[in-house]
Every structure is written in structure tokens, then in C-alpha cells.
Design brief:
The chain is of the alpha/beta class. The chain contains eleven helices and 14 strands. The strands form three sheets. The chain has an eight-stranded mixed beta sheet with strand order 6-7-8-3-9-10-13-12, sandwiched between helices. Strands 2-1-4-5 form a four-stranded antiparallel beta sheet. Strands 11-14 form a two-stranded antiparallel ribbon. The structure holds iron/sulfur cluster.
């Protein structure tokens, strides 16, 4: 499959200012050299705890914040250094759905106008009739009732508001949608409905999704591949099946240990990580995970592990030769 999005060694370091003259006293290393790609029609999930830098990656791709370093290519065109005037036509192809649909929708705009806005902005409808037809088609696609067109966002539940956000993201004919914790604020059953909707839309429209989430249980049902982030870096990247059945990195193992096992006769051994996530202002030397890793050894404290191949299409940034023991055990054991 052709690569739609390529991200090479992306960095975002936020300067820390202090003193009378606002001099830079240090940096928050929010994203520190992240490389991945998304194919046409593919879902790549970026997962990790709060503060690991995953949302910053999404914002840097969208140029909502300017990257510090690295390269971003959309369909072979480098977009991270493109002047904003030249970036605009490409923006049509990459849209975003945020966690809180209410704050990203204009409360004074009717739902129909809200969905129509990107179509108007990019000049994609020849006349008012075509615009209305496109808005109704999008509402049908995301399974919103047609009478929603004249109503306001506050009249809808969280799940329906997220459908409005998805319709708006689809409106300019996008190829890639960045879903930034798009289902995190929803109830479990509504979460599942939105995930199913995204999956159906992907099948129907050949969309690519960059799905940013802290919840591995949700991405299991949607994703083709998963990149796990810790303190600004990707520590493991592989396909969904391999990640859930044979992950390599101890941090991924710990995240997975919190995911419920569907088999009621088995339990997963919970791995409780010690301590808090270190500050991205002063990340640990060596392996950034070494202060919390149950398998830490001397080398980890001094030498940073680079992403290396540990299987077909499977990379892990860990000095361990082999993955730790499988952690799902039968209940009777
Ligand atoms: Fe743990 Fe060492 Fe692997 Fe880091 S490199 S994850 S500290 S075993």
C-alpha cells in the first residue's frame, strides 16, 4: 500500500521561559524523535499514558503547533516547512476529531452550517443546492437524524456531537483523519458505536486513521498497527495481532496487563509500575523507562535503547534480547 503520511524524527521541544526578560531556562521534551508512517486506508494507533507526547505528535502533523525538528510528508510532499499559504490546499486532506466535540463545535452554529463550513471554505460546492445535498449525505453517513440539520450542538448527546465532529472532518473529502482521544470522554457503549462507525467509514471511503488514545482496549477493535509512546519516544511499533499476542517491550506489557481478557476462564497478571512518569523536562538517561521497569539492569541506566527489529514489521526499543514471559495465566493456576 502507498504511504499517505510519513513522519521522520519528529521533535517538539517547548521552551521554558523565566526571569524578567523571559530567557529560555530549559525545554519540555514533549516529542523527541518520532518516526512512523501511515498507509492509505490504514489505521495506526498511537497509545501511551497521559503526557507521553502522543497528542503533540498529532498537533505537530497538523501544524497546530510548529515542530522543532524532523520531517512530515503527505503523499510524498513535505509539509512541515511549507508556507501556510501553500499548506492550505493540503489541509483539506488531513482533518482532526478532538476529544471534546462540544468545545470544537461552535455552539451558535446550527449543525448543518457546522458541517457545511469546510465545504464552503474549500470551495467544494457549486451552489446552495449541492451544498445542502452534501451536508445531508454526510449526516446520513455518520447516522445523524436529518432533522439535526437545523438544531444546535448543545441539543445532542456526547456521542451524537462526536458524529457531528466526524461529519465535519469528512466534509472536505479528507484522506486522513487524526482522532485525538476522540472516544475517551464517551460512555462504554457509545465508545463502541463511534469506533464501529469509524471502522465502517474506513471500509466505505478508504480513509486512513491516526488514532491517538491512552486506551489499548479500544484500539484493539479498530487498528491495523500500534505505536506505543513513552516520554516523547516510540518504544514499540507493530501490527495489532503481534502487539496483543506477543509484545516485546516491558512498558507495552504493563499497559496490556490492564486490558481485560475476553476469556472469562483466564486472568491477566497485572503488572503494577513503580513510581510516576518522570518529567519530560529532565528525562532519565539511558532507557527513559528504566526508573519504572521491572526488568531494569545496569546497561539500561547508561545506554539508550534504539528501536530495533524484533520480528517481521515489529520494532522495540529495549535491551532485552527476548520479551518477558507471557503474562496471561489460567485462573486455576
Ligand atoms: Fe526495561 Fe532495560 Fe528494556 Fe528499558 S531497556 S525497557 S529498562 S529492560
Amino acid at each position: 500500500m502507498p504511504k499517505l503520511l510519513e513522519v521522520n524524527a519528529l521533535k517538539k521541544h517547548f521552551p521554558l521561559k523565566a526571569g524578567l526578560f523571559g530567557g529560555t531556562t530549559g525545554y519540555v521534551y514533549a516529542v523527541d524523535g518520532v518516526t512512523f508512517s501511515v498507509d492509505c486506508g490504514e489505521t495506526l494507533s498511537i497509545v501511551g499514558e497521559s503526557g507521553c507526547g502522543k497528542s503533540t505528535v498529532g498537533k505537530a502533523i497538523l501544524r497546530l503547533i510548529e515542530p522543532t525538528d524532523g520531517e512530515v510528508f503527505l503523499d510524498g510532499v513535505r509539509i512541515d516547512n511549507l508556507p501556510l499559504s501553500k499548506l492550505r490546499p493540503l489541509r483539506r486532506r488531513v482533518q482532526v476529531v478532538f476529544q471534546d466535540p462540544f468545545s470544537s463545535l461552535n455552539p451558535r452554529q446550527r449543525v448543518g452550517d457546522c458541517i457545511a463550513e469546510p465545504i464552503v471554505n474549500f470551495g467544494l460546492a457549486k451552489n446552495a443546492g449541492e451544498l445542502q445535498d452534501r451536508v445531508i449525505a454526510l449526516m446520513d453517513k455518520v447516522r445523524l437524524p436529518r432533522d439535526a440539520i437545523r438544531r444546535f450542538p448543545h441539543e445532542f448527546s456526547g456521542g451524537q456531537r462526536q458524529r457531528i465532529g466526524i461529519a465535519r472532518a469528512l466534509a472536505p473529502g479528507s484522506d486522513l483523519i487524526i482522532c485525538d482521544e476522540a472516544v475517551s470522554a464517551l460512555d462504554v457503549s457509545v465508545k463502541a458505536q463511534i469506533v464501529n462507525l469509524l471502522s465502517d467509514l474506513q471500509d466505505e471511503l478508504g480513509l486512513a486513521l491516526l488514532f491517538i488514545s491512552h486506551d489499548l482496549a479500544i484500539v484493539e477493535h479498530l487498528t491495523h498497527r500500534v505505536a506505543v509512546m513513552y516520554l516523547g519516544k516510540i518504544v514499540e511499533i507493530t501490527d495489532r495481532r503481534t502487539l496483543f499476542a506477543g509484545s516485546h517491550h516491558p512498558y507495552t506489557r504493563a499497559l496490556l496487563s490492564a486490558v481485560p481478557v475476553p476469556d472469562p476462564t483466564a486472568i491477566r497478571q497485572r503488572i503494577i509500575l513503580r513510581g510516576d512518569v518522570p518529567s519530560p523536562i529532565n528525562p532519565p538517561n539511558g532507557c527513559r523507562f528504566h526508573t519504572r521497569c521491572p526488568y531494569v539492569f545496569d546497561r539500561c541506566r547508561v545506554e539508550e535503547p534504539l528501536l530495533r527489529s524484533v520480528g517481521s514489521g515489529h520494532q522495540s526499543a529495549c535491551h532485552l534480547e527476548h520479551a518477558p514471559d507471557v503474562d496471561v495465566i489460567p485462573k486455576a493456576a
